[in-house]
Design a protein that fits this description.
Blueprint lengths: L7 H17 L10 H20 L4 H27 L5 H30 L13 H8 L5
Helix pairs in contact: 1-2, 1-4, 2-3, 3-4
């Protein structure tokens, strides 16, 4: 189990969520259960999936939850555009949220790639052992006569 609070991507996603909540506080009343709720749900889904993935066992499950978080980030990307185009979010506020979201998407993408590589390579990651000698590697490549 990994501590999600120690991940920079979680911290940035959490800050993004706080920003979305602040930006949607001024939405029209009729959007309370519409676009405002969707923006909040999509933004909160990103750090939530990071946290849930960290609570699962193994990199494969972590990568799956990170990928779900990336899907929520893309959903949020569109919803922010819609809110801007409807005039619900000021252009300056939109630019700030878009910038935060882009950073989160890049960090998530990098983390997904790293987790998948660590999952594919035996003994990869923080507890990796030293590479085997050429002799032991050569022995493994010789076919056995059974």
């Amino acid at each position: 189990m990994k501590d999600f609070r120690r991940l920079q991507v979680w911290e940035k996603a959490h800050m993004l969520t706080l920003g979305v909540y602040k930006a949607t506080a001024g939405f029209p009343r009729e959007e309370r259960f519409g676009l405002s709720a969707q923006l909040r749900r999509a933004s909160a889904s990103i750090p939530s999936n990071i946290a849930e993935g960290c609570g699962r066992s193994g990199n494969r499950e972590l990568a799956r939850f990170l990928q779900v978080g990336m899907g929520s980030a893309r959903e949020l990307e569109y919803q922010l555009l819609l809110a801007r185009d409807l005039g619900y979010i000021e252009p300056g506020s939109y630019k700030g949220l878009e910038s935060m979201l882009t950073a989160v998407e890049k960090m998530l993408g990098s983390l997904i790639r790293k987790v998948r590589i660590d999952d594919a390579v035996p003994n990869a990651g923080p507890r990796a052992t030293a590479p085997r000698s050429k002799l032991s590697t050569a022995r493994q490549q010789v076919p056995r006569a059974d």
